[in-house]
Amino acid sequence: AREAVDEVRALAHRKTPFGSSTALRERGVAQATLARAEAILRSARLLFYSTLREAWERTLAQASSSLEQKADLALAGAHAVASSVKAVDLVFGLAGIYERNRLSRHFRDVQTIRHHGFCSEGRYETAGQVYLGVEPEFGFVAL
Length: 143
Description:
Helix content: 55-70%
Strand content: under 5%
Structural class: mainly alpha
Number of helices: 5
Oligomer: single chain
Shape: elongated
Distance between the termini: 30 Å
């Protein structure tokens, strides 16, 4: 997602959308969309890395993780992926470009990772189950 946002940021300097005389970087919708993608990406990274940092500190202290702390890890991973999908979708739509380019590759990659069992949308449900005191259906979180 980071590379996709950066790719469109660079593209906006040299691209003028079809049927327009205004460069992409000068268009309000492009500015707002890029900023929205950046905010989505940065906020997800903050949650992800702060949750990992807390888990690493527990590991260094040889402390075990509670079920809720494990759910926090699942949530951070799922949210990082879902946010990456959203950010890439925003900038991909903004770029309006053809199939053979790096941005298309980033789009395909993020669509693939969103289906991985450990970070799919289903992990939101897993975290919610734990937070509500329900036995998690995704057994790996309870290990």
